[in-house]
Structures
1.
Amino acid sequence: MKRKRILQLLITLISMHFSTYLSSQSIIVDDLLDDGEYLWISSSTGLIKYQKQNTATILYTEQDNGIPPVLTNLSKDEEGNIWGISPFHGIIKFNGKQCSFYNKDNSELRDNTVCNHLYIEKNGNIWAGLIGGTDLVQFDGTIWKRYNLTSTYIYAFLNTIYIDKDQTLWLGGFCEEKDVKDTWSLAKLPLSNITKGITPVNISSIGIKDIEIDKQGIFWIICENSFSLESYNPVNEESHIFKLPESDYPDVDSNNQIIPFSDIIIDKYNNKWLCTYKKIYKYDGSNFITYTHNKIDGSVHCLSSDSNGDIWIGTDSGLFKYIAAQDKIEPVELNINKNQFIIINKKHQM
């Protein structure tokens, strides 16, 4: 899958060299961040700031602003900076004009490719989980710290981080311990004493991909190799499994593989939205409802919901939008003109 993704990126970059106009369906959308009237779009061309109402669009590129393509885990801090993870450059911070990098040379990252998840506290602290172990890094704006949560694992990765109102740090991923009873996919530890040790949580899911928290504080979990949705109540520790019917599974991809869920979000109506190869699913509390569009050809990478209840959809085939009032998906044309963007970027104006 990684080789295929890199090939897609190279094809897109080559096409940019010969064309000044880039339609939405000619870019690969890797991540989305809802920002009120704006939508931040991480793509194979760079970072895009899209104004939803009048569709004005700014493209920030590596050439003009230092921003590498293919960012994931887009997040915004209290000062308005946009953060993300680059597969080759570590953690990036974008202030609206230029990009800063945190990597093995100036932070506690082991190398430039190991970061797997970002979480930003309200106080501005940045947390990141590292691939290939249970190392957790923290950045307060000045000082980096790294915590090795366990040294007895056989195989481990951290995919998601969450800090609740009680200052409990939750970790989702997978950690296979030498002692089988200590193996976990979901774990917690007190933020005030991280070195105290991890407490594994008993759930059915193995290898957590992502977690979303609803307004009632319920965890909604998707896994690396499953078409099930699991809910977990941290108060009474009850969990429930909701299985996608096999008849609704996605088609196999070009490698003859079935792609599991790649993202989960919760909309304003408390619906859970999930995505995979060519398909998007809405779980309304009782049933899974399947959505697709004939122009979506490839994987659906990411979802983002806005205050209207609409869902923005990032795919191998560009940007799409689920319009709640019409209960349908439509493609979104970004109207990216490269020549115009060279001028707009230097002024940083819509």
2.
Amino acid sequence: MSLRYASAVEWAEEQSASATPRLGILEAYALQRHPDAVALAGDDGAAIAGMLRPRGAARRAGDVAGWAFGLALLAVAGAPLIGMATLMGDQWGIWRLPIEDSAPVAGVCFAIGAVVQLVALVAWLVRGRRRSPAWRWLSIGTAIVGVVAYAFGNGLASTAADDAWAAWSAPIVVAIVLAAVSAGLHLLLSRPAEPAPHPVVAAPAAPGDAGTLRDALAAIAPEDRAAALADRDAAIAVLERRGLIEAERAAEARRAPLGGLHALPA
């Protein structure tokens, strides 16, 4: 995977005038063609190296599965809306199914909605009644959509004298009740969400890491190493020219060996 900036100089030119540039990131961009060395150049280098690693087949398959699951979940959560739309048709009356055709579709959609509400309610209880705004609003939305669909379907059924509506409207009623109960319990009995975990402070680099980085840099061809150093120093000059770092800081950065910017004091 390629990065947004092809060189450290390009990265330096694009920094905001109000930014405080991280020299570790600058050097990581200068070394981006050598991922093994970048990965050892501090936290910033490790982050950039993670972006440079090729995405394996398993990871790509995982992404596809994640998207498929998300779309399926969205479709399931939106089933009541589909059921309501099937009953109501469009606002101009161009597309509208008769009640004998739309009622089964709406019934199935709201049956799915009822199952979703039941699963969400059980999950909420299992998780210790933790507050979840997303599920709460999904329950409220399902209840509102259900009431609208039930009222509209009743009107169509009475006009068309359709006897099957009574059976197909039962899932709508169940979904409304479950959604209303779920929303009410969320509002009244929810506990605060779990606090975000405290960030883990990285341990200081082990003494052997510096030697490992030196070995990785030594494995780079001399001309490539010189090109990375030139790109790094040119980027430092850009930051100094733009006033993003002071002259003393720029001189200190230029004196550091290649791969050493991440070790400079902030």
3.
Amino acid sequence: MCYGGQRPPSRDDITTSAQSTATVDQNMAAVENLRRRLEESEERLERARAREAELGRLLEAMKKFVSVMEILENYLNRRYREQLSRLYS
């Protein structure tokens, strides 16, 4: 083989190249692992946001219910006082 102005690869060069390939493979595996974990985290975040939105809707519905119950309570208390005042007048 002709290497031009370069020297032929030595055994150390070949070993270093094999180690580099192994390192690249490990790095690729790590990157894929991180991508998978990121995707899982994004999915969990999406589910958490959906749950938060649902809880927010439930909270608003409960607030409306409590408001209606307070109005009803005030009305019934007023009617009760009016009836008591008529009874003792």
4.
Amino acid sequence: MDKIRNAQNGDSDINSVALSTSTVGTCMSTVIELENAVFIYHIESSDFIASDTCSITDAHAFLMAIFKKVYRLDKKPVFKKVYLIGGLNTDQYVKLKNEIDRIGEDPSIITNENRTARSDSFYLFINSIKMNLIDFNIKSKTLHGTNKRPYDNDSPNDYIMDCTVIYDRSFTPYIFAVYQFGGREHQMNCIRYHSLLLGIYVIDQVDDSKSNSP
């Protein structure tokens, strides 16, 4: 098997066969199945707003940023399925997740008065969201097992969690797998040993119904 190209943090990529992205922790990954390719965007945590005051406007901006990234690499994208994975299981990320779900359930709440062909494509993009798991990883914990607070100093012994996402179109059906890792920060920054692998989630590529869980 050829080596699968990996989208680095902050980067997006498109490939006709397969792509991956790794160390998705506080950041997000967007995996999009297009008509003849797969697109992945590894979104840095500084590029979106996940807060207690997160609004529909913030969720709209988050989705539009992804949409524009796709258009830079594919001028006529045909959206099949869109998956959002990553982030932390905190109130702030859940708030953003819920606002995105609201848009998915009723896209008219962000309708622009002057619609263009491109904005129509944006609504097709929204309707293609099949899974929203942007609260996928547990929040960081201290050496003593308590939740990490924003003002706590970072420590190599903090317990953190992240995931690696792989999408491969060379199989029938396509393979979409999420590898979840967890361990002390100093362990996670080194070679990923099997003991750090917590689970492998294989997303069903046959069922087209929307889902919020693997």
